Amino acid sequence: MLRLAAASLIGTAIEFYDFFAYGTAAALVVGPLFFPAFSSAAGTLAAFGTFGVGFVARPLGAALFGHIGDRHGRRPVLVASLLLTGVSTVAVGCVPTYDSIGVAAPLLLLLLRFLQGLGLGGEWGGAALLTAEHAPAGRRVLWSSFPQIGPAVGFVLANGVMLALSATLSDARFTQWGWRVPFWAAGALALVGLWLRSSLTESPSFLEVEDRARLPLADVARHHWRLVLLTAGALTIGYAVFYTVTTWSLAYGTERLGVSRTVMLICIMAAVVVKGSLTPLMALLGDRYGRRPLCLAGCTAVALWVFPMVALLGTAEPLLMFLGFLGALIGFIAMFAVIAAYLPELYEPRVRCTGASVGYNLGGVLGGALTPIVATALTEHAGRVPWAVGAYLLVIALFSLGCFALLPETRPVPVAAVEPATG
């Protein structure tokens, strides 16, 4: 289990490194380089629009790779999705700017972001299911939380490289070529991930399925559509608060509050590191008390914290901004630490890869794709404290809380509770 979980974690970290590298670039340089004719605010909106394309592609990738996972196994999904994401990420680092090739530049960027999203849409389902289906029932959340640590590791890697380049290069050099380096590095990381995943064994749950769905997506749409919509709605707040902290606040802090790029990156990265380190603890609580209670508690915590978070962001003080980000991310990880076990348990094995992946990634469209765009539009004429963003997040949190309340608990009943005592 340790070897399997480690391989899932590392592979997920690499794929999310690719995704987050673009998110940071979108907040810092994509607008001026690829949409130079736009105003500063409009350029940022356009950059976040290209960022959102990746989220729109993720449910399509979930359906495509979910079909492969339910028909041919979870293991092929891990290899194919990582290869697609890695190649498209390296290509992003090679795209000429608008000044070189005109309108073809943003169009190429959109295409590559779409391919990135396709790959990442398949990645999560393969990694989560392979780990969850190998794990013992009593520790399923703990082992399944390893892939959930991957996004934190990928974020720190991507932004660590960005931070190092930002701190050592002049603004002119960073804008000219420095921002491309993290994308080029993705190629080497993808090769490492492919090597680690090449020796993984297939999921026992998949091997036990005799009546495999011929068209898993059609089966999910016919029999599990309500469950897909509920899980997507429930996860929306997690995506919304995460990308508010990691993507939108970076642009807001540097452009509107005058905080240096380096300081903002350090504040965000520090909060993400703490969040990642708390993931196993939250997973242990999920194994002990159940998946649904942790999700309800995390969602409630986010709802209570969104206004303090934006107030602390508005101070532009590094320590206060860090505390604001950290509080939001603790609520986030209380939900997402258990999701890699919770979602697969909600679906029958024959359509599990498709159902869990599509639900998970639809939440990304609603929360991850729209939030940076909406938050930027809401704060175009706002003061230092973006209260409108807090109100927006609160509405989403209440919506997600209602969806979580309608989902069932799936924690396995302990053997001692169902077997009669002997002796």
Provide structural commentary.
There is one protein chain. By secondary structure, this protein is mainly alpha-helical. Helices cover 83% and strands 0% of the residues. It has one domain (2-200, 220-409): MFS general substrate transporter like domains (Growth Hormone, Chain: A, Up-down Bundle), CATH 1.20.1250.20. The longest helix has 33 residues, at 2-34. The two termini are 34 Å apart. Residues 414-423 have low confidence and may be disordered.
Give the SSE map.
Layout: H1 2-34, H2 40-72, H3 74-92, H4 98-101, H5 104-134, H6 140-168, H7 171-176, H8 181-197, H9 204-208, H10 216-223, H11 225-255, H12 261-289, H13 291-314, H14 318-346, H15 352-378, H16 387-406, H17 415-418
Helix pairs in contact: 1-2, 1-3, 1-5, 1-6, 1-8, 1-11, 2-3, 2-5, 2-15, 3-5, 3-8, 5-6, 5-15, 6-12, 6-14, 11-12, 11-13, 11-14, 11-15, 11-16, 12-13, 12-14, 13-14, 13-16, 14-15, 15-16
